[in-house]
């Protein structure tokens, strides 16, 4: 059931050395390919990073929040081509990335989204610029996030949802707070 899956999905940042199988990785990406995109334009692209040295380098793309990528067995960089969908590329990527997180959880894998926007590499260049050089990307691409995936080496409790009453409002009856 979908509720069980969303309860199970947590951000996992510690991983065992066990390999994520090609089959599982393929399934995760296949699921992302089912994500909706505005006007069905599909600006989303994926780069698979498996090489340990590259993962280690990648874990330094920003000062905080990407270190866990070092221990991941595989990472997926989610990019968009701004020329294909200049107004909706970020939204399209977010949905696809969410599908990846849920697909990983469904396969009992751990995964976490590392953000790129507004982050800086320790050299002072933006994380975006660092990643453009790292992946040798043309200007038209935005790196939206990097998702580290592996077999979990930490256990987390079920997801506790936000309070319904605090965030859901009835049109005409409620003032949104
Ligand atoms: C847009 C977005 C950006 C995030 N960026 C990072 C990040 O850079 N590094 C990180 O370790 N976790 C990152 N996370 C994971 C969140 O910290 C995590 O989802 C949140 O604390 C809730 O925990 P949960 O995923 O276990 O429910 C990000 C999540 C989202 C949705």
UniProtKB/TrEMBL annotation:
Q: Which GO terms describe its molecular function?
A: oxidoreductase activity
Keywords on record: Oxidoreductase
- The answer to whether keyword Ubl conjugation applies is no
Organism's domain of life?
A: Bacteria
Q: Which Pfam families match?
A: Nitroreductase
Membrane-crossing segments per the record? none
Residue span(s) of domain Nitroreductase: 7-59
Name the family the entry cites.
Belongs to the nitroreductase family.
Kindly provide the name given to this protein in its UniProt entry. Answer: Nitroreductase
Q: What is the lineage of its organism?
A: Bacteria, Bacillati, Bacillota, Tissierellia, Tissierellales
């Amino acid at each position: 059931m979908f509720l069980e899956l969303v309860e199970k999905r947590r951000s996992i940042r510690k991983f065992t050395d066990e390999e994520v199988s090609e089959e599982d990785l393929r399934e995760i990406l296949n699921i992302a390919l089912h994500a909706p995109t505005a006007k069905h334009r599909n600006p989303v692209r994926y780069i698979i990073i498996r090489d340990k040295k590259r993962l280690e380098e990648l874990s330094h793309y920003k000062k905080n929040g990407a270190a866990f990528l070092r221990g991941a067995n595989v990472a997926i960089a989610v990019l968009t081509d701004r020329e294909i969908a200049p107004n909706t590329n970020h939204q399209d990527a977010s949905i696809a990335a969410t599908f990846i997180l849920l697909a990983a959880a469904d396969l009992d894998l751990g995964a976490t989204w590392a953000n790129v926007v507004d982050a800086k590499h320790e050299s002072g260049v933006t994380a975006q610029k660092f990643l453009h050089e790292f992946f040798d990307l043309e200007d038209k691409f935005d790196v939206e996030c990097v998702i580290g995936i592996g077999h979990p080496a930490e256990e987390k409790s079920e997801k506790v949802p936000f309070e319904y009453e605090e965030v859901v409002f009835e049109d005409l009856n409620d003032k949104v707070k």
